[in-house]
Each structure stands twice: as structure tokens, then as C-alpha cells.
Amino acid sequence: MRWAAWAYVALVMLSGRVGAAEHRKVEVRIDALLAKFPKVVSIEPANGAAGVNPGLTKIVITFDRPMVDRSWSVLGSGPTYPVAGGVPSYDAARRVLTLPARLEVKRAYRFGLNGGRFTGFVSEEGYPLEPVLVMFTTKG
User: Fold this and answer.
1) Mean pLDDT estimate for the chain
2) Distance (Å) of CA 109 to CA 18, 20, 54, 92
């Protein structure tokens, strides 16, 4: 979504059809639209972390706004997928999602939040989370 919005601004500017003032108006509108999309504020364990405790039993994802309950797309499979059986759950404000996890010693893990046609993470206002790739490794 972001690249498409900025590509539009670039094309308009390159076409010479608008001046700097009009460009700024378009840019402000695009920024306002992009601000409506939810963002991940934090992930525990942190994205890219090394030496994560393999005894960890949950992954906690915090969003910048309330999300639609019982709607998520956590993507991955196989030995690099840390999410264990069980149902993910939001806190009462629907800003913090807890995923049950099962980790092993000395292993690299990877999973995605939204991606492709899977866009289950959606804000209350109906805007989907842009895809996020999460990776971390456990200590040995």
C-alpha cells in the first residue's frame, strides 16, 4: 500500500502537472491515509533477537490501536514456526495479542503477520496490518 501511494506522488511530480504546493497537499492526504493503518509497536521476543530463552511459552505482539477480535493471520509452518497449538488471545483493549509458543534450544524461528491473501490482522476501523516478518533465535 505505501509504495503505491508514494509511486503515485512521484508520477504526479514527474509529469509536471502540479507544483510544489499541490504536491504537498497530495502528500498530506497520503500521510493521513497511511496513518489509519495499524502498526506493530512491539514484539516479545523482539524481532531479530538472538539468544531468546527457549523456555518462553508465549509471544506477545502489541499494536498501536485496537484490532478486530478473533481475526488474525499468523503465517508459517514446520520447524521454524514457533506458535504452538492453542488459541491466540487479545487483552481487553484488543491492542496486545498473546500467541502460545513452543521453542527449542539453538533454533531459528520465523513467522509472518498478514501476507498475500491472508489479511486477518485488521484494525477496528477496517484497515489491515501491512505484512510483518518476525524472526528470532533461541540460545543453546
Assistant:
1) 89
2) 47, 46, 11, 28
